[in-house]
Amino acid sequence: IYGIFSVLIISFTLIPVFFNALIYYKNKRRTEPVTLSNSIVSLVSFVIFLLGSLFMNLLIPVLYITPAKLKHKKYFMALLIHLFSKLVVSINFTIKRDYIDKKKFDFSKPSVIISNHQSHLDLVLILMLNPKIIVFTNKWVWHNIVYGIIIRYADYFPAFDGIKDKHEKISKKISEGYSILIFPEGTRTKDGTINRFHQGAFHVASIFNLDIQPIIIHGAYNCLPKSEFFLKSGHITIKFLDKIKPFPIETEHGITFLQQAKSIRAFYKQEYYKIKQLKETPAFYKKHL
Length: 289
Prior knowledge:
The chain is α/β, with parallel strands linked by helices. The protein has helices at 2-23, 36-65, 70-91, 121-127, 139-142, 148-153, 167-175, 200-207, 220-223, 258-279, and strands at residues 24-25, 28-29, 95-100, 111-115, 133-137, 157-158, 179-182, 211-218, 234-240, 249-251, 254-256. Helix content is 46%, strand content 16%. A hairpin with a 2-residue loop joins strand 10 and strand 11 (254-256).
């Protein structure tokens, strides 16, 4: 009886807090209230994310003692991340997805994959495309208490440390057929616009003699902006562009990719505008309104 009474008290306490969160965020009224269906999908996605992370964390000690080649064990972890990304994306049935020129996404040989960075969704949307993708991560992701050990075991790379002492390790992953995912903006956009591109992705492609595979993501910001933790209904479009070569420029201060980073960002903005014109119809904003 005491247990039942306690559960009821907690429930009656949390329910108003939960429904308040659908309308207010950081003590401010939301421009767009979160629907009950979106909140349930968000909760289910979060629980599955935690359970999946827990499972992979517990699996790592088992893999350590498994009598198999290390590269096969690493691939198995990459495959799990790939399948888990597919699962997370599939669960979000309120978010529609379509692809433009997907045939241009060529995995016959490794490349440096670049994409604009709109949302946390970007990562799973790309990782679900192929298991042989490793990611250059920032500091907080590398040291994350939930999944940090998973990405370190899968041989993701800490971009904040540079790559001077990691050439051999990166070359080995490339020789095994892995492509490298880098977000040139470095962080998620705050307002949906495409921020300045850093030179790192182009520098990495040049060092390891890889082509660059550009991807443009549209709509992910509307579904999960940087300032939000609830998923929203929406429509995400992923456009694949032709591969390009890194284009270094020799200066008196050394090699630079600044001009290429600027020109590729300008090209991204043009292509993104074309997608906006195509996809942002009245139906795109219907639920938001």
